[in-house]
Amino acid sequence: MFKFVKTDIPEVILIEPQVFWDDRWFFMETYSRREFIENWIDCSFVQDNHSKSKKGVFRGFHFQTKNTQAKLVRVVSWAVLDFAIDLRKTSNTYWKFVVEELSARNKRQLFVPQWFAHWFLTLEDDTEFVYKCDNYYSPEFDGGIMYSDPSLSIDFEEIKEKYKIEELSFSEKDQKHPTIEEFYSDNPF
């Protein structure tokens, strides 16, 4: 019932559910433990989160330094640009990232493994984003990377223009994270 696609970082997996449409609208499975295990995702999810945001809200480059979390993310209304950044220092894909557009329309999901920073940018007002985590939130191990780190080479002006976003909105917390260079010496991954 799902199509599993390995991205440029093979541990980050794009999931396309089979959607059954009729005159009542649609039905789809969003998760099947058996099928996910058969396709490289063996997690026991313990927590579900749900956020609603206006257009242009940036949430992230978040991770936990201990009690790390794998996440299965999707959008239930409107759309996001979703990023996963590899923080594993010994990985061939260290500091590389995957970006996917997830929407209520395309119904795609993204599996973000442990040891990855994750963020999303809402592309429409009233965007609702949900995700499963395989570990509980631990505020004492909360971590992040500065979204504007120049070594990421993310062109926010280009993103704003492409998606017709007038202004990006960041939390105070997200504006205080270290750069990847500053984080590197304390990186537990």
Question: What layout of secondary structure does this protein have?
Answer:
Layout: E1 2-6, E2 13-17, E3 20-22, E4 25-27, H1 33-38, E5 47-53, E6 57-64, E7 71-77, E8 79-86, E9 97-103, E10 109-112, E11 116-122, E12 127-133, E13 142-144, H2 156-162, E14 169-170, H3 180-184
Parallel strand pairs: 6-14
Antiparallel strand pairs: 1-2, 2-10, 3-4, 5-12, 6-11, 6-13, 7-10, 7-12, 8-9, 8-11
Our count of helices gives 3
Q: What is the end-to-end distance? A: 34 Å
Biggest β-sheet: strands ordered side by side in the sheet: 1-2-10-7-12-5
In the predicted model, the low-confidence regions spanning at least 5 consecutive residues are: none
Number of strands: 14
CATH topology: Jelly Rolls
What is the CATH H-level superfamily? Jelly Rolls
Which class in CATH terms? Mainly Beta
Determine Rg (CA atoms, Å). 16 Å
Task: Name some characteristics of this structure.
189 residues, six-stranded antiparallel sheet, mainly beta, Jelly Rolls
